[in-house]
C-alpha cells in the first residue's frame, strides 16, 4: 500500500506497494551495529539505540495489523454504505490525519501547477481508483480474497517496469518470480476447477486495483522523483486531490444515506484515520529508521493478517487452495523484488 514517493502501499507495494513506495532517504538502522565489540558499560546512546530498535519492530507489527485489517474494514463499511461513499470517507479522514501532521511539523503544501498536475494523476492511480475498486470488489468477494489479490501488486509492478523503466532489466530470478506468482494466482482462483464458485467481476476488480498501484508508482517515479518538496507534503497534497476526485464522483453515483449505522461508520473512520493516514506516518518513520528494504517487508504480512481477520471475525470460508496459492504468490513477489533490494542495500 506505498509508492516510490509515498502511498502503498502500501504499498506498495509493493506496494508496494504497495505499497513499499517511498523515496524517503534511508538511514542506517540503529540495530545494525554489532553489540559484540561494545564495552561493558552501556552508554546513553547505546541504550537509546536499543529502545529505537525495539520501537521500530513494534511499529512494524502495528502497521502490518492496520493494513491487514483494512480489507475487513472495507467489507464492514460496504455492508451499509455505497463503495464510493466508503472510499470518500476513507480519503477524507486519511487526509485529515496528514493535514494535522503537516500542521504540527509546519509543513506546507507543494507549489507549482505542474507538480499539482502530476499529483492529480498520482492521486487517481494510487488512491481514488484502487480504493474504489477494492470497495466495489468486496461487494461480491470475501475480504480474504481481496487481501490476497492486493499481494499481486509486486508482480504487476515487475512486469510493467520491464516495459516502462529502461533501468529495470529482466533477470532469470525475476522472470521466475513472475511465473511462480502467476501460478499462485491461478491456485488461489482454483483454475483447475474452471473458477467455479468464483465471482469473476469482483475478482477482476480486485486484481485491477492491485494493478493500479504499480501504474501510479511508475508515473510518480518518472515525474516526481527528486522533487524538492517533502514526502509528507507531496502525500498530503495527493490525498487531498484524491479526496476532491471522490467528492465530485460520489454524488453522481450514490444518494445520501438515510441512516448512518454506527459499526460500518466506525469502520470507515478507522479505515481512513488508521489504514490511510496513520499508517502512512508509521511507514515514514520505518523507512527513515530501518530503510526501505526492511520497511517494505510489511507487504508480505498483509495478506496473512487479512485472511486471518476475514476467517475469524467475518466467518469467511477458506478452501485449501486460498492460503496455499497466497504463499506461492508471496514467494513469487519476493523473487521479483530481489534485485531491487540488493541495489537498495548497496
Layout: helices, strands, pairs:
Layout (H helix, E strand, L loop, with lengths): L43 H34 L5 H22 L8 H25 L5 H8 L2 H12 L7 H18 L10 H24 L7 H23 L8 H34 L6 H13 L6 H16 L1 H8 L1
Describe the structure.
The chain has 346 residues and is mostly helical. The protein is 68% helix and 0% strand. The protein contains 12 helices and no strands. The longest helix has 34 residues, at 44-77. It is globular and about 55 Å long.
The biggest beta sheet is recorded as:
none
Written as H for each helix and E for each strand, in order along the chain, the element string is HHHHHHHHHHHH
- Mean pLDDT, as a whole number? 80
Q: Tell me the fraction of residues in β-strands, as a range.
A: under 5%
How much helix, percentage-wise, in residues? 55-70%
Structural class: mainly alpha
Rounded radius of gyration (Å): 20 Å
Give the end-to-end Cα distance, rounded to a whole number of Å. Answer: 24 Å
Q: How would you describe the shape?
A: globular
- Helix count equals 12
Poorly predicted parts: 1-54, 341-346
Q: How many runs of DSSP E, i.e. beta strands?
A: 0
Q: Could you list some keywords that capture this structure?
A:
346 residues; mainly alpha; globular; disordered C terminus
Amino acid at each position: 500500500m506505498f509508492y516510490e514517493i509515498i502511498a502503498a502501499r502500501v504499498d506498495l507495494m509493493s506496494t508496494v506497494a504497495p505499497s513499499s513506495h517511498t523515496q524517503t532517504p534511508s538511514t542506517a538502522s540503529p540495530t545494525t551495529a554489532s553489540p559484540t565489540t561494545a564495552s561493558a558499560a552501556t552508554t546513553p546512546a547505546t541504550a537509546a539505540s536499543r529502545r529505537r530498535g525495539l520501537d521500530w519492530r513494534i511499529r512494524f507489527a502495528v502497521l502490518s495489523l492496520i493494513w491487514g485489517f483494512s480489507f475487513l474494514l472495507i467489507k464492514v463499511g460496504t455492508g451499509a454504505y455505497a463503495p464510493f461513499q466508503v472510499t470518500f470517507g476513507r480519503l477524507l479522514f486519511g487526509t485529515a490525519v496528514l493535514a494535522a501532521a503537516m500542521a504540527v511539523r509546519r509543513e506546507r503544501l507543494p507549489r507549482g501547477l505542474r507538480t499539482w498536475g502530476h499529483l492529480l494523476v498520482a492521486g487517481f492511480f494510487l488512491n481514488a481508483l484502487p480504493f474504489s475498486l477494492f470497495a466495489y470488489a468486496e461487494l461480491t468477494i470475501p475480504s480474504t480474497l481481496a487481501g490476497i489479490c492486493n499481494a499481486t501488486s509486486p508482480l504487476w509492478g515487475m512486469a510493467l517496469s520491464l516495459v516502462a523503466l529502461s533501468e529495470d532489466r529482466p533477470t532469470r530470478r525475476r522472470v521466475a518470480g513472475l511465473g511462480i506468482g502467476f501460478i499462485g494466482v491461478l491456485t488461489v482462483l482454483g483454475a483447475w476447477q474452471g473458477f467455479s464458485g468464483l465471482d469473476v467481476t469482483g475478482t477482476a476488480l480486485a486484481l485491477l486495483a492491485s494493478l493500479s498501484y504499480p501504474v501510479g508508482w511508475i508515473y510518480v517515479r518518472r515525474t516526481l522523483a527528486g522533487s524538492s518538496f517533502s514526502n509528507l507534503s507531496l502525500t498530503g497534497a495527493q490525498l487531498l486531490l484524491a479526496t476532491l476526485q471522490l467528492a465530485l464522483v460520489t454524488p453522481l453515483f450514490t444518494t445520501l444515506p438515510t441512516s448512518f449505522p454506527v459499526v460500518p461508520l466506525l469502520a470507515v473512520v478507522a479505515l481512513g484515520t488508521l489504514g490511510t493516514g496513520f499508517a502512512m506516518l508509521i511507514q515514514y518513520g520505518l523507512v527513515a529508521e530501518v530503510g526501505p528494504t526492511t520497511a517494505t517487508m510489511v507487504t508480505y504480512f498483509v495478506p496473512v493478517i487479512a485472511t486471518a481477520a476475514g476467517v475469524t471475525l467475518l466467518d469467511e470460508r477458506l478452501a485449501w487452495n486460498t492460503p496455499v496459492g497466497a504463499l506461492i504468490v508471496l514467494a513469487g513477489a519476493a523473487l521479483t523484488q530481489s534485485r531491487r533490494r540488493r541495489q537498495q542495500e548497496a
